[in-house]
TrEMBL record:
<feature type="region of interest" description="Disordered">
    <location>
        <begin position="23"/>
        <end position="79"/>
    </location>
</feature>
<dbReference type="Pfam" id="PF14016">
    <property type="entry name" value="DUF4232"/>
</dbReference>
<feature type="signal peptide">
    <location>
        <begin position="1"/>
        <end position="20"/>
    </location>
</feature>
<dbReference type="InterPro" id="IPR025326">
    <property type="entry name" value="DUF4232"/>
</dbReference>
<feature type="compositionally biased region" description="Low complexity">
    <location>
        <begin position="23"/>
        <end position="40"/>
    </location>
</feature>
<protein>
    <recommendedName>
        <fullName>DUF4232 domain-containing protein</fullName>
    </recommendedName>
</protein>
<keyword id="KW-0732">Signal</keyword>
<feature type="domain" description="DUF4232">
    <location>
        <begin position="69"/>
        <end position="188"/>
    </location>
</feature>
Amino acid sequence: MAHYKALAVGVTVVAAGTLAACGGETTTTQPPRTVTVTETPAPPSMPPATSAGPERPESVARGSQTARCGPTVLKGEIQGGDAAAGNRYAKLVVTNTSSKACTLYGYGGLQLTDANGNPTPTKLTRKPDPGPALVTLEPGQQAYKNLHWGMVPDGTEPTTGPCEPESAGAKVIPPDETEPFTVTFGFGSVCRHGAIDGSAYYK
């Protein structure tokens, strides 16, 4: 959770007054005054899931008249795959639940969470397996995102018990969006400090 500190700036203002009198000149100097100005920085925009900047090129955006698939129209699940030699593979499956077509382009974001929705270690790396391509989902259609992570501690993590705090869910941010939807993550710890490889979305 970010903490915001008020920034106090002290400004010393010295006022001098000069009085002219008959028979001589008298200068009166006022004592220094200190004016304190308090500025409170605005909270930065912090999306609740690992994400990056805009993904969809202008050429793709201009060529598509269909709205993006946002978090309010998508539902998802993570389906387990193979596990071999300390590696785990899965697919994030998203479904368009709206009554209109929508599009996905790119990788989006992912943040693992515990059972209470609190973040657990996550380092999402984009892998072009496959890379970005425009995906159009008609109502009820699904798209996929390949996921891969390790199950072996990296040498700085515990070797007895979980290598990292166990994850029970994930917050998923669709490409070019800032708000997430949630999915269940039933695979426990993600070693190497939450390192996950993720592909772009595809059909």
